[in-house]
Amino acid sequence: MQRNTLSKSRYTDGLQCAKRLWLGIHERQLATPPSEGQQAIFDAGTRIGELARGRWPEGVLVEEDYWQHDASVSATESLIADPSIEVIFEAGFTELDVRIRSDVMIRVPDTQLWDLVEVKSSTSPKPQYDDDIAIQALVIETAGVRLRKKMVLVIDNSYVFDGVELDLQNYLSLHDRTSKVDAKEQETRESLDRFHKVANGDVPDIEPSPHCRQPYLCSFWDYCTAEVPKNWIMELPRIGTKTVAELRSQGVESIRGVPSGFPLTDQQAKVRTAVITDDEWVSPELNSVLIDESPANHFLDFETFNPGIPIYEGTRPYEKIPFQWSCHSKTDQGAIDHTEFLASPTSDPRRAFAESLIAHIGVSGSVVVYSSFEKGVLTALENQFPDLGDELRAIKERLWDLLEVVRNNYYHPEFHGSYSIKAVLPALVPELAYDDLALQAGDSASVSFQNLVLDKTLDDDDKNRIESELKAYCARDTLAMFKILGRLTSISA
């Protein structure tokens, strides 16, 4: 029987979960396709990898695609043998039944040594990157290529874009991980041997647990959790691996089966009570903490995007750029009125965002938000535009966080462990949800606006459609807050 060859990504899959490794080889069609937001992150990583090559203009790219791996190995061997080649991009190797492509290899002058550089789109080195580099180093050195340094290149989020040209030397930051990678050599060999056995054996019997989300949510999560019981124990907020294992040792998979007296956090205990009673849990303090529904109330939501490659002068990588707000407000007559702002995609939206918000929100009345997100955005705008500081600080002082009120004082079994507004709204106000919208998540809204900014192929119909979808989504968020507060007020009466 032919032995299954691993790749770098399959190796790192195995470090998270042996079942993920096996499914990725034998049943990859069972994976959930990436969301629009996840795909945007992958695409940005690819783009940053391509940009990084600009740091070494003398570099040579191994152009063969991933399905032409054997040809990439041959091309790499020729480049390594040519002393005039100083830098290689996407070098291909196959050893130990593992295929890899390495982002950057740099020849050390006057030696037979090379430096290995892995490019990542994050802003700091992470422990999982060392595992990524370690499997590459093992394969490369098994191929007879000696490595001096093993490094990771990440984005420096202190870099400020001048609005003209990206300075790659300052935008990207190089970190030497040699000692940490070298310390993993024996562990990497042992893991690789284990993963080859997994890849060529039967599907591992591994139950879903918190490991499925570390360091990233597994793409097979939906498949592996398709038959879990309603009110599954993993819906207990912030449940850890040890607690899951302890409950499973007692045969418990549903929250209904969690024994009385089992150690739970206060938040988890609220969830258990609601599930077991099949009824909402309401804090005695709910009525006292609810805001007065006066005509001065505003319900406010922001949308932002955070490009890893800065677009506007004076911005940093991954800086949150606010481009849209929605506000539902109580009128003097007790009706609800809606106002919105959506920035032009042709220029930096921050100033227009701040000025339009100040002009609309006025100087009185509580401003209801859902989380501390809006407060952080206002603080950033305050720092960016000192002349608007007094007005922005005044708005910030009027913020009232509905999420904290819900989290501390109410739980419905249909929340299924989440206090996201996407979970809370259909449980409390079932006639109003997000199912009818083209955009149903904040990351999708961010991607849509970034497309408006960067995609020059969009025609007027596409632009109008995207703008309509953005407005509908943001308006639903603020209407949702109004409805949720009204429902909680009714419950507490």
Describe the protein's architecture and organization.
The chain has three domains: 6-199, Lambda Exonuclease, Chain A (Alpha-Beta Complex), CATH 3.90.320; 240-277, no CATH class; 288-492, Nucleotidyltransferase, domain 5 (2-Layer Sandwich), CATH 3.30.420. Helix content is 43%, strand content 16%. The chain is α/β, with parallel strands linked by helices and 493 residues long.
Protein topology:
Layout: E1 6-7, H1 8-16, H2 18-26, H3 36-52, E2 60-61, H4 69-81, E3 87-95, E4 98-107, E5 113-119, H5 127-142, E6 146-155, H6 168-171, E7 172-176, H7 178-182, H8 185-199, H9 221-224, H10 241-249, H11 266-277, E8 281-282, H12 286-289, E9 298-305, E10 321-330, E11 336-342, H13 350-361, E12 367-369, H14 373-384, H15 389-397, E13 399-401, H16 402-409, E14 410-411, H17 421-428, H18 442-454, H19 460-492
Parallel strand pairs: 1-4, 2-3, 5-6, 9-12, 12-13
Antiparallel strand pairs: 3-4, 4-5, 6-7, 8-14, 9-10, 10-11
Helix pairs in contact: 1-2, 1-5, 3-18, 5-8, 14-15, 17-19, 18-19
In short:
The protein is α/β, with parallel strands linked by helices and 493 residues long.
